[in-house]
Structure to design on (131 residues):
């Protein structure tokens, strides 16, 4: 079971308990519990994480998304499913190109900490930097 934080506005004209009067109409954080099906979660992330290679795989994936959109076990993912159902095959190809570019990086030749070194260097006065 996971705890989710829900933000809601107090829009009522009803008199609130004394501890809520100071809040007025500002947002109030309330905690609610929602059971998230772990099998549904695993299925969702496994399917979303794969990028279809051709239009038949894309159409199969879209039909799975439409099925999940009607399944209450996937209610927590409905906003993301709505977004994924609006993408066409060409839209998914952008992600495939990005994934191929990332896979093409040579992790031994690429310095993932270079940004940190440059940031530290930029904090030094110009006179202290190496030529």
């Amino acid at each position: 079971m996971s705890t989710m934080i829900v933000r809601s506005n107090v829009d009522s004209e009803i008199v609130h308990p004394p501890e809520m009067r100071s809040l007025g109409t500002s947002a109030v954080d309330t905690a609610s519990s929602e059971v998230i099906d772990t099998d549904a979660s695993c299925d969702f992330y496994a399917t979303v994480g794969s990028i279809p290679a051709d239009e038949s795989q894309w159409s199969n994936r879209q039909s799975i998304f439409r099925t999940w959109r009607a399944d209450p076990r996937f209610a927590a993912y409905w906003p993301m499913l709505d977004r994924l159902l609006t993408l066409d095959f060409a839209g998914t190809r952008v992600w495939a190109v990005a994934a191929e570019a990332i896979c093409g990086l040579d992790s031994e030749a690429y310095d993932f900490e270079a940004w940190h070194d440059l940031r530290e260097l930029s904090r030094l006065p110009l006179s202290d930097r190496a030529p």
